[in-house]
Every structure is written in C-alpha cells, then in structure tokens.
Amino acid sequence: MNRGMSWLLGIFFVLTGTALAEGTFRVGTWAEDISPSKLPISLAGSMTDQRGMTIHDPLFARALVLDNGQTKLAFVLCDSCMIPRPLMDEAKKRIEESIGFPAANIIVSATHSHSCPTAGEAFQSSASPEYPEELITGIVRAVVKAASITAPAEIGFGSANCPGEVFNRRWRMKPGTIPADPFDNKNDQVQMNPPVGSANLIEPAGGTDPEVSVLVARSPEGAVRAVLANYSLHYVGGIPANAISADYFGEYARIMTSRLGAGKKSNAFLAMLTNGTSGDINKINFRQARPPMEPFAQVKHVANEVANVSEMALKSVSFQKDAMLKSARKEIELGVRKPSSEDLARAKKILSESEGKPLTTLAQIYARETVLLADYPDTVKLWIQAVRVGSAGIVAIPCEVFTEIGLEIKAKSPLQPTFTIELANGYNGYLPTPRQHEWGGYETWRARSSYLEKDASAKIVDAALELLKEVARD
Ligand SMILES: [Zn+2]
Fold first, then answer.
1. H or E stretch including 437?
2. What is the pTM of this model?
3. What is the 197 CA–ligand 1 centroid distance (Å)?
4. pLDDT tens figures, 239-249
C-alpha cells in the first residue's frame, strides 16, 4: 500500500472548530503517515536483521497538541521500535524553527512495535539511507499540522485496570536450569522468556502494572476528540517476519476510532497508545501454554481488551475547561558499562572464528555488541522530562523501563495521577533496577540494548521526581 492509498483509507484525523476567545483551552491532532517509501527495508526488533517486504498496516506519527493560551505542549507517538535521540532532537529543532513551538515542550516517543523500519542501529539491523529523514519529516509534519488546526476543548484524566494482558517475563528457575549467558557465565538467577509451562518455573522476578491511563480531550459539546492512552506492555507480536505493522498500538487506534470517531466528519478523532514501563513485561502466560494463534489474532485480541478498558476509564473522567500546562526537562549524564580488555579480546576471537558468516548464536551476536560498545564514550547524556496537564503528571524516559520503576514514579509523584512514557526523547536501552542487574538475565546482558550503569534507574527516578516537583509548583 502506498502513502496516498493509506491516506485515502482515512486514518487521518483532524480537529476542526470555530475560533474562540484567547486563553481558551485548545487541542489539535494529526496523524502523519510514516510508512517507508522504499521496500524491502530493515526492521528493528530481532537479533538478526529482518526484511520488511509488505506493509500490512500503515505506520503513523500521531501528534496531540495542547494549548491553554500561555503554554503549548505536544506529544508525538511514532510507530517505531525505538528512535535514537539525534533524530528526535533534529525533528524538535525543525518544529521550533518552522513554527516557534518550543522544542523543550515536545515529547516524542516510539511505541516499540517490533515490525517497523529500523530508525538507528539495533543488533544486526541498520536504518536504510532514506528512512531516518522520512521519520523526521513525518514527526515535524504531524506537530506543525496539529498545531495549526487546534480547536476549543475540555481536558481530563481517567484510568482503569487491564490485568489480563500483562505478564512479567523474567522468572526465577529451579537451581542449575538457567542456560549460560552469551559471555559463557552461569551467574543468571533469572531467565527471560523461559519455556512456557516448564516444570522449572519458580516465580516471576517482578510484578506488572495493569493500569490503562487515559488523557482525554473532548469538544465543548461533549464529543470525545482525542485519547492519549498509556499501558505497560512491551509489544504483542504474532506478526509474519516480513510484514510491516504497528502491532497492537496501531490496531488500538483503529478500534478506538471506529468506536468513538465513527460518523464524525467535522468532529474528527485521534487515539494514541503510548508505551508505559514495560521493559520486563509481555503478553505470555508462562504458567499455561495456549494453542497457536493465526497471525495478528493476538494483536487484535489485546488491542480490543485495552480499548474496552479505555472506554471504561473514559467514564471516570471529569473534564476541566482549562488546565495548567508545564514542561521541565533535564539532561543527565550516566556511565556506560564498557567491556574490559579481556572481554574485548574474547569477543574479537569469537568474531574472527565466525569468518565473516552471518552471526546466529548468542555468543557471536554479543561478541559483536562487545566490540561496538568498546567504542562508546564513557558517559552518555539523556533527556529526562516531566510535564503537567492540570493536576496530572507525565514523565518521559528514553529507555525500556522496568515496570517496578514506573510504579515507583506513580507512587512518589507529587502530581496525581502520574504515568511514564518510555522510549521517549531518545533510546538508551533497557533500564533494570540495581537489584534486577544483580539477578541478571537478557535485559541486563551488556549490549547496545543494555549499557547504562547499574545505578542508572535510581538516578533517573531522582531526576524524574525532581522535575515532577518543579512542574507541580503553582
Ligand atoms: Zn523490545
């Protein structure tokens, strides 16, 4: 399907309305198609490169702009696995240059679909020459357009629980049953994605966050116009390896649009499902095997459940005609877990023995990661951001954040409700807690997908809470 066709298919939402007096709360939305122009294309989300051959469903950069007459905020959610910071910074810079919208008030994030074009580098996948620019252009267009067509709106928050679709994927196993890690150590006390129904399962190494949070905008007449939802589930999958898809995030937007946006011509509608803190969460019930499902069946099932719960949450929303908007962000510097000279020598030996053939074993794949990480700087800088919408707080973190970290931020935030959008404003790999680092497992294995210092989560939570306090001040 080409861009023009998907445009015509109408997943393209505009808020229109009549102008009101200055100072009135206004909302604008736009969904810009970011499906790749050239196929085949490298897809991110596997340790070996996958080639996207067909576009199963179109990809979008979905933008929601809030404007209370004094301050503007923008949320942009891209159907992408992860997006490196320089690309997001460039998009924000161009938005600020073209319409004066402050870059510091924009949160750009990726959904984490594993069936989308590579935007940077991920294991053995690299971005095509064209795609990063297509993505930047899409993000810029989405915000510029949304900001140009704002209409009067009321705003509110709600939430409800959807516990059946989230499972912690890290498990304690019977002693001696966890395989060696890619560096040939047998220290892991936790296994990611253990065999379903295994007799060796003891218990999950962490909990889940079942909450579906919704930020909702409606017209003064009461028609829902935008839903920004947040749920802590990594992605769903069950998608053919060569298909490009927005996973359940895209299906959620389609279902919500058919339920709440159907028949609205002048009152168009946008739904976007941001990823919460889901670094250790997936949709697999490890205690109980289930029969195999058709491709996309699981995507549809989960999207439908989250949409049902979102509609329940909508009922709890009390709308305000105006809301304080604030944004604060801070650049923090964190250490990189770089390989030692022994690690590097071992990795180079493994790679030389693979004689230039495709890397397929964990030992080979992580040997390549070790060599690449040796060239990383000793520290990296990350944006941590908090915004306030009325009495609610939203945190943005550029990592795949473990769910317990999101729960801690929710519990300690001075603003209620609060939720976190992950993979936002950059990409710095997994964010386990120091304790989870001790337990080991896939998410802690040193690679470009997990390289921040072991104390990173404590420093990021401190920064997030400090920023929340700052925006909470009247
Ligand atoms: Zn992932």
1. helix 434-439
2. 0.94
3. 23
4. 999 999 999 99
